[in-house]
């Protein structure tokens, strides 16, 4: 079992534990660390048995964990590309999320922002998913990469097109009153929630189709399970949808109450900065919550797995890397 997963097995048992750790891991300053520093941190964690039992009592060890958890994929042990590391999610996804929900004058502009947003979130999802399916690509070097590429391209294009539809309809001059409000103000957020979950389900579809590795409590791989893969992807899709949906609703609700005050009448140019501030604040507050809702080291009952796995172990609970 990778040291990152060993960390979550002892330090991620409760939501509160995971939340506190994610608030630390999501520090954007760790993106400035070099690959050499990350590799040294990994070496420290892998060579010192004490760090696995007492991971947070020493400052040097604590920093090593922070670098490893924020920068290294627990399934492959490889360093994640900088733009797709968890600490990069907030500074990169927030402006795209903000722009994708703004009312746009035309379908082309709305489609571009939707396409950029879903392209980034799809890339982040792939980079932080379970690596079992990627390992299978070595045996089938031509089939799976093409299939995954087509699935990702199709999912992102579909999401961008569907996301732009309300903006296009809402911009039509023949619409007015409640219908215009519906398409411009109400529909975009629930549609974005659905499309965010949809892209996660599609781009990580190979995990559901091929299955992911399940382990016992000691890290021994018992087998590959489609049911565990489906559970991992569904949990991630649900947390991603809840993140963007809740952030959109809260920021819009706060803006609605601000508009009812005299503040914007005295400062009409403050609307856009206020909207940006509320979006950044809500996403920043909800991101560690979203990553903490489900354990990084997921658990699944032995009886819920395939028959071939049932005959391979007597353990009542097995574990898997859920991904982010």
From TrEMBL:
Membrane-crossing residues?
149-169, 181-203, 237-258, 270-294
Protein family membership:
Belongs to the sideroflexin family.
One GO molecular function term?
A: monoatomic ion transmembrane transporter activity
Q: Where is the protein situated, by its record's location annotation?
A: Mitochondrion membrane
* Name of protein: Sideroflexin 4
Membrane topology term reads:
Multi-pass membrane protein
Read off the InterPro entries from this record: Mtc
Q: A single GO CC term, please?
A: mitochondrial inner membrane
For this protein's source organism, the top of the classification is: Eukaryota, Metazoa, Chordata, Craniata, Vertebrata
Superkingdom, taxonomy of origin: Eukaryota
Alphabetically sorted, this entry's keywords are:
Amino-acid transport, Membrane, Mitochondrion, Transmembrane, Transmembrane helix, Transport
Q: One of this protein's GO BP terms?
A: mitochondrial transmembrane transport
């Amino acid at each position: 079992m990778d040291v990152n997963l060993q960390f979550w097995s002892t330090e991620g048992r409760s939501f509160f534990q995971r939340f506190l750790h994610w608030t630390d891991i999501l520090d954007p300053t760790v993106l400035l660390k070099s690959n050499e520093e990350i590799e040294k941190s990994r070496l420290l964690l892998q060579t010192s048995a004490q760090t696995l039992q007492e991971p947070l009592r020493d400052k040097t060890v604590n920093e090593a964990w922070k670098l490893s958890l924020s920068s290294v994929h627990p399934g492959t042990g490889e360093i994640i590309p900088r733009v797709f590391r968890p600490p990069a999610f907030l500074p990169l996804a927030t402006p795209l999320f903000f722009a994708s929900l703004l009312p746009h004058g035309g379908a082309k502009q709305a489609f571009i922002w939707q396409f950029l947003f879903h392209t980034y979130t799809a890339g982040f999802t792939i980079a932080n998913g379970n690596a079992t399916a990627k390992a299978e690509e070595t045996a089938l070097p031509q089939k799976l990469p093409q299939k995954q590429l087509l699935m990702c391209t199709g999912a992102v294009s579909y999401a961008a097109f569907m996301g732009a539809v309300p903006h296009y309809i809402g911009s039509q001059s023949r619409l007015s009153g409640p219908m215009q409000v519906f398409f411009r103000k109400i529909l975009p957020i629930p549609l974005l929630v659905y499309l965010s979950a949809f892209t996660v389900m599609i781009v990580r579809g190979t995990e559901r189709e091929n299955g992911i590795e399940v382990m016992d409590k000691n890290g021994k791989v018992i087998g590959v399970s489609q049911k565990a893969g489906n559970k991992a992807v569904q949990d991630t899709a649900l947390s991603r949808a809840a993140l963007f949906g809740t952030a959109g609703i809260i920021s819009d609700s706060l803006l609605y109450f601000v508009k009812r005050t005299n503040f914007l009448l005295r400062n009409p140019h403050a609307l856009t900065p206020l909207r940006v501030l509320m979006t950044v604040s809500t996403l920043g507050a909800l991101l560690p919550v979203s990553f903490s809702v489900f354990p990084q080291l997921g658990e699944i009952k032995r009886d819920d797995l395939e028959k071939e796995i049932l005959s391979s172990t007597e353990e009542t609970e097995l574990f898997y890397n859920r991904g982010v």
